[in-house]
Amino acid sequence: DDVQFDGTAGVPELNALADVRVFPSPTSGPITISTSVPMLEITLQDLTGRTLWRRDAASGPSANLDLQGLSPGRYMLGIALTDGRRVVRSFVRE
Predict the structure, then answer these.
(1) CA–CA separation, 48 vs 50, rounded Å?
(2) Reported pTM
(3) What is the CA radius of gyration of the chain?
């Protein structure tokens, strides 16, 4: 049998599909979220999974979050994108 391949096959990494950056980390001040796809909602959780707050992102590709009053530690941001995906990123509050 004659078998031919044209091109490559593969599965893209899930994180590569949604370019979402959270910076700076660690931080003692505000953080910035930057995405390639506009955001709908941002959820902040501690490492126990407790939701600390949920905010509308107003369909923008970036957001600045004031972390005043947040205790030092690692936190998770759940970011809902307008294309239906949800991305989770972590950051450290000093």
Answers:
(1) 6
(2) 0.78
(3) 17
